[in-house]
Amino acid sequence: MEVEHKRDTKGSFWSSCCRNGNSTKSPMKNDHVDIAGAMQNKPGWKAIPFILANETIERIATFGMTINFMVYLLKVYHLSQVGAANVVSIWYGVVNFIPIVGASVADASLGKFRTIAMASFGTLVGMVILTLTAWMPQLHPPKCTYDHKLQEVCDPPTSTQLGILIFGLSWLAIGTGGIRPCSIPFAVDQFDTSTPEGRRGVNSFFNWYYTTQTVVLLINTTMIVYLQNRNWIIGFGILGLLMSCAIAIFLAGKRVYLCIPAEGSIFSGIAQVFVAAYKKHHLQNPSNEEEQGVYYDPPLKDDIALKMPLTK
Q: 3-class secondary structure for 37-83?
């Protein structure tokens, strides 16, 4: 475990993000700092209010946008119940799958802080698009009319209108895929779990996290649904403003956070195994006389990786 060191590149937004502790650089030629100094400088609860506030407001905005979305599709887009159910079900399926991709990207290259920040902007873009679909008459079907028999006549959405709607939902899914798998691990990274105080801090964080989740569900199923049923533009617009506040709060603590750098995704290692197996499938196993020195035994790096007992 190492901690990101702030690069000296001027003008870069990310160069000013996250604390790097007060320790000196390691002798290795990289931009990382010593782990011992980093553990002593973990901010703990100094960083949690920013993370918890961002997570709470983001969930109000995201869940509030979708908790009443079935009604929006039926009343505004004039979809059938089957069509609306298909759109919502497919979107929920994507939202529950894409966090795997988001976690892999965070572990492989971006790190948790950058993934959360970028995904938050993606969520905001999706909310702005969905708000525009309710605001601009060109982006949704016209209101239903009545024929001479007093039967309701509703025009279905055009391909363009439905495409813009799906485009906004896609941005929401991308944002959720980056925020959901990284928020809790990023919060835990702020505590020194090798100490009793740090472990108590993690336990307290989880208590607050699930308490706020209950409050979020209560707010979404009452106040947000009420506002949306009164006026879709106001209901969606308020959620967009809340998401903007969540981003501002999260970035306000950027100098307090302590960030763990990306160390590689487990899926990268799995893919490497399959690639190596395919490239070497034609090779023959060595004979007993040739086995010595054939198998790869990687050396330990900085005494961080530990071997299991009874292994060479």
A: HHHHCCCHHHCHHHHHHHHHHHHHHHHHHHCCHHHHHHHCCCCCHHH
Q: Pick the closest to residue 64 from 260, 238, 181 (CA basis).
A: 238
> Is residue 205 within 8 Å of 52, Cβ to Cβ?
yes
Tell me if residue 107 falls in helix, strand or coil.
helix
Which runs of consecutive H residues, i.e. helices, occur in the chain?
Answer: 35-40, 48-66, 69-75, 81-105, 112-135, 159-179, 183-188, 196-219, 225-230, 232-252, 266-279
Query: Hey, is 310 helix, strand or coil?
Result: coil
Q: Could you tell me if 253 and 47 are in contact, meaning their C-beta atoms sit under 8 angstroms apart?
A: yes
Give the chain's largest Cα–Cα span: 94
Token pair for 20: 């790097």
CA dist., res. 178 & res. 173, Å (int): 9
User: To 5 degrees, how large is the angle CA 301–CA 303–CA 309?
Assistant: 105
Q: Report the sign of the C-alpha dihedral through residues 86, 87, 88, 94, in that order.
A: positive
Distance (Å, rounded) from C-alpha 161 to C-alpha 156? 10
Question: What is the spatial distance between Cα 182 and Cα 147, in angstroms, rounded to a whole number?
Answer: 53
Q: Distance (Å, rounded) from C-alpha 34 to C-alpha 220?
A: 44
Question: pLDDT tens, 56-85?
Answer: 888 888 888 888 999 999 999 999 999 999
pTM score of the predicted model: 0.78
